[in-house]
Design goal:
Layout lengths: L1 H5 L1 H15 L4 E5 L2 E6 L3 H10 L5 E6 L10 E6 L4 E6 L4 E4 L4 E9 L2 E9 L5 E6 L1
Parallel strand pairs: 3-9
Antiparallel strand pairs: 1-2, 2-6, 3-6, 4-5, 4-7, 7-8
Keywords: Signal
Protein name: Carboxypeptidase family protein
Organism: Pigmentiphaga kullae
Amino acid sequence: MKQNLRWAAPLALALAAAWPLAGLAMDKGEQNGIAYVTGGVGQDESTAIRGMARDYSLRLLAAAKSGEYVADVRVAIHDSGGKDVLSVTTRGPYLLARLAPGNYRIDAEYGSARQSRQVRVPASGRADVSFYF
């Protein structure tokens, strides 16, 4: 009995640390005709989403300046005319989107930090953009 209790505290701490990530899972959807997927929490999910990247024209990565990946980043993608084409909150460090070739502005917000990037999505291949907060 005493040996079983020795594992109770470390197990409780591990479960408590994992709890905030428990609700996170890859999210696939479509908005304004644009297919997207977001996620990448944990090794298996991160590997899966990186494998899916070849099917999308934009790959966005969000991380802290320390290098740790972040989730819950509010992302708004606007076309060259300023029209909002995709607005989503990430479920992990990655956002993949199937955008038409062209120029876009991406606004990302994490906590109180805001950043913008201009991105050109090519006719073939993929545009990669990273945000570090």
